[in-house]
């Protein structure tokens, strides 16, 4: 029922200690969260199976089911997504933190906010101001109304079929959007995500 902070992948210090957000950027993040959030806080990494610069779409795909299970098990009242790789893992969409300032969604029905990684904020004073303002917005602002469109993260084709069938049964209007990469009909072509 508290705040769940989802980071990207463990850094060297985190990997050694087995604890998320325990390095300098984690300390800074925890201090800033404490300014705006009074309830319980749990931190985790979206990509626990990878560290450092070994991140790619394959690692994200491998770790996504674990993260989803963790969110469903903990049932947080709010999620704070820290960094672009964490957004890709949680939502299936890489949201560039500087381009999506103030972004909000409901992921698995839970209010979810997206912010820059605190390491970037520590390296750049301009980013630091933006990070702190965005964090205040994410943690201290009242939640938007529940009727705001939500994102349900579906991990398999069968989940998508079940979800779409439910929409059709409720006679909900449905629109599709498919994001792809590479030139069609070549080996590089792939579907990145399908939204409806």
Give a brief description.
By secondary structure, the protein is of the alpha/beta class. It has helices spanning 12-17, 24-36, 57-74, 84-91, 118-123, 125-140, 157-169, and strands at residues 3-7, 41-45, 78-82, 104-107, 110-115, 177-181, 190-195. 41% of the residues lie in helices and 18% in strands.
Structure overview:
With 196 residues, this protein is of the alpha/beta class. The protein has helices at 12-17, 24-36, 57-74, 84-91, 118-123, 125-140, 157-169; strands at 3-7, 41-45, 78-82, 104-107, 110-115, 177-181, 190-195. The strands form 2 sheets. It has a 5-stranded mixed β-sheet with strand order 2-1-3-5-4, with helices on both faces. Strands 6-7 form a two-stranded antiparallel sheet. A hairpin with a 2-residue loop joins β4 and β5 (110-115). The two termini are 29 Å apart. The relative contact order is 0.13. The model has no long low-confidence stretch (mean pLDDT 84).
């Amino acid at each position: 029922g508290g705040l769940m902070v989802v980071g990207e992948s463990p850094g060297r210090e985190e990997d050694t200690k087995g604890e998320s957000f325990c390095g300098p950027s984690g300390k800074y993040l925890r201090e800033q969260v404490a300014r705006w959030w009074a309830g319980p806080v749990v931190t985790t990494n979206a990509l626990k199976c990878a560290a450092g610069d070994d991140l790619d779409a394959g690692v994200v795909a491998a770790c996504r089911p674990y993260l989803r299970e963790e969110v469903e098990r903990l049932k947080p009242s709010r999620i704070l997504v820290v960094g672009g790789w964490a957004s890709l893992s949680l939502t299936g969409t890489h949201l560039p933190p500087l381009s999506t300032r103030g972004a909000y969604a409901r992921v698995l029905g839970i209010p979810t906010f997206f912010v820059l990684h605190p390491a970037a904020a520590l390296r750049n004073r301009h980013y630091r101001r933006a990070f702190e303002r965005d964090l205040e917005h994410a943690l201290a602002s009242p939640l938007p109304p529940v009727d705001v469109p939500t994102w349900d993260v579906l991990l398999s084709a069968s989940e998508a079929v079940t979800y779409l069938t439910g929409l059709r049964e409720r006679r909900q209007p449905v629109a599709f959007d498919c994001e792809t990469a590479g030139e069609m009909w070549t080996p590089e072509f792939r579907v990145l995500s399908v939204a409806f």
